[in-house]
């Protein structure tokens, strides 16, 4: 069984979503299905079919979350240190073409949000940085084209 690396915050977010799905969304959709059944003919009842579709989505997501939580490898970033890029690191990069600086943290797949500066550990940029240190250059092919970066800072928060 393959472990799923994530930060403590990512783990807590998955648990909170699972709790909401089980305690709020699941009962609400069961109520909606029950109410739609009372309207009669189910074959032409759009409310019933929409509620059943939502129920299917909720149940699929619950199974997915329970699987990820059971395989979670929670990494306490506050206990990490050093100058080598690894999971949890906050990296300051400079684009060697534009001199634009960017700051990213390498996080688990479910925590990733590029707009908030969180890169998935499986993204091309994160994979290129892993194992590198301050002053190293990296070359990456992104959806936006070929990019060259230099690592300016590595820290763990």
TrEMBL record:
Molecular-function GO terms, alphabetical: DNA binding; RNA polymerase binding; translation elongation factor activity
Entry keywords, A to Z: DNA-binding, Elongation factor, Protein biosynthesis, Transcription, Transcription regulation
Ranges of residues in domain Transcription elongation factor GreA/GreB C-terminal: 83-155
Coiled-coil positions: none
Biological process annotations from GO: DNA-templated transcription elongation; regulation of DNA-templated transcription elongation
Domain Transcription elongation factor GreA/GreB N-terminal, first and last residues per copy: 4-74
Entry similarity comment: Belongs to the GreA/GreB family.
Function in brief: Necessary for efficient RNA polymerase transcription elongation past template-encoded arresting sites. The arresting sites in DNA have the property of trapping a certain fraction of elongating RNA polymerases that pass through, resulting in locked ternary complexes. Cleavage of the nascent transcript by cleavage factors such as GreA or GreB allows the resumption of elongation from the new 3'terminus. GreA releases sequences of 2 to 3 nucleotides.
Name this protein carries in UniProt: Transcription elongation factor GreA
